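User: My collaborator and I are trying to settle a disagreement about how two of our proteins should look. Neither of us wants to argue from intuition anymore, so we agreed to look at predicted structures for both before our next call. Could you fold the first one, then the second, and keep them clearly separated?

Assistant: That sounds like a sensible way to settle it. I'll keep them separate. The first protein:
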Amino acid sequence: MKKDIPAKNPNPQGKGLSSAVGLLTETVAAMAVPPLEDDSCDRIVEDYLCSLLVLSCSFSFRPVADREYFIYFHDSRLLLSLISPAEGGMDIYDEYWAACRLKNDFCWSVQLSSEDLKERLTNSFPANVPEKERLEYFFSGVQRGEIGRYDKKLGYYQNVLNYALGKSIGLRSKRLLELEESSTGHTNKRKLPGSTI
């Protein structure tokens, strides 16, 4: 009598089984934006800038939420790595820049390694711009396709995460704008380019 031997799965991670559109759909479906009471314009700006820093890094793996990654400067470019400085990252790469973590809303949090880096990132968006205008900037950028669009200079996973970032920033910005308008009773009289609100 012949015994049935269980077949070994030759592709346990499922690589190549998901189409690009399927991965985008799966990524957006898994998104969990922060509760409205925990969100703010300043947090959206910070999340966006931190995410741009991480997405400008070179990497060829699929980052997962709630895992720590590390940014290094090496051979004149930024790299995202799974290897911490304590695990030998400083022996492999030229300069350690930051630790970062992908959040459930597909934005990144970043803990920069020096105050100089922190100051440069913080000062990249003008502080004197009123909150509503900053929200309108992000929301209209998403509506016009400037945030979250495909960029041929980015790798596959960077583009997937950039798409999810655009969806997250757009949803959060729209939600805060609607809250502000309902609390003040004023709607935005000037139409944003490409906006439907």
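The second protein, kept apart from the first:
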Amino acid sequence: MTEHSTSEAERQSIRTRLLTLFNESWKYFLVSAASLALDLVVYWTLIRVAGMHYLIANIVSVGSGLILNYALSIAFVFKQRRLRNRRAEFIGFVLIGLAGLAVNEWLVALFVGVLGFGVVPGKVAAAGGSFVFNFVARKLLLFTGTNPAAAPSDDNASMDADRA
């Protein structure tokens, strides 16, 4: 193999990876927008209708968005999966989501409690920071690998059947 053909193969590999990253990024953005819409409806309802404190409502609403985000991410966004065990993958997704929730909670507290934003504008502003954190962490830790949509292991049959 010549140096030129190796170089061309490397360039093609980089192009393919960048195209995959671009496609996953915009799809994840759309999935996150849907998840954020659910999150905001739950958040607003808990604050305005149920009278819940905005930081507690944020935790509950982020949880609802996280579940929707996982379901849509594995269905439409990420084709490569690092883990074959879906329970382990979901736990990792949730743990990253909890770290993202900490980022989001801190930003909501900053925007609403310190900077004086309204509760909904503060929540929307905070969503940008947690979006970037969650996408990068999930892509690097869960959805990068050589297993295109790795087949689930047998011990996950019940979880997969629940999703069907």
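Some points you might bring to the call about the second protein. Residues 27-163 form one domain. Confidence is low (pLDDT under 50) at residues 154-164.
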